[in-house]
Amino acid sequence: MADKPNAGMDEFWNGEGGRNWVSREDRLEASLKIFGQQAINAAGIAENNRILDIGFGCGDTSIDLARLVGAGGHVHGVDISTTMVDTALQKAKKGAVENISFECADAQTSVLAHGEYDIVFSRFGVMFFDDPVTAFKNIYAGLKPTGRIAFMCWAGRQENSWVRLPLQVVAKHLDLPPPPAPDAPGPFSLSDENRVTGILTEAGFSDISVEMFRTPFVLGGDLAEAVSFLMELSPSGGAIKQAEADEELREAIAVDMADMLKSHSSERGVSMDAAALIVTANKA
Q: Does residue 249 lie in a domain region?
């Protein structure tokens, strides 16, 4: 298993990570919708387009895309999480969305239909490849000669207070693990503009554009929901899990986390500053 490409991410998203995400899908989709919409706007979706959606999560963005391209278009989603694929299939069936399909597959290693897609799209789904150049070459091959890629990825940790400040809280209670290497698969692996541009150029893309997008990120509807998110799904939650903190320590961290979040509460919920990159490029 260790030699399998993207084995770590496969294990995470088909295990606790995927289950935690699906259990919070309503809140997460509401909070992330603004990011997906910005990426959709940048993609230049047109009626009758055929679109590949990579790392589609629970399928909400894929369904939005399917409605935009109309009955003459089609959206095919690939994700490595069987849990998320099942959830997305149920949503599409419930919404009677017929011009859509979902597949449990890895965009780095799976054979994509060559020259099939007008647009490859992703909202926070392309930062987890072991070998991003190989992955984007595979994605490049799936595009039509006039095709285009558009995706959203997180900017650096320091640009995201929802990452930086909770980690400072955790650091008061335990020694933080060293941050992953800049090129290690994970949420921030494409946070450097030069690295993103270099990967896409090597993969064959041209006319590459990288733009910063800043917006408040709603962590929860109230303090309890926001603390739960930061303790389980965010980088601060990963640090707590890696340290194997006992229940008493977790409770102490949660108390301090809630105290830190009080100044970030409003009628719309608990939100903190977030920054992401909108990346677009053309098939050369």
A: no
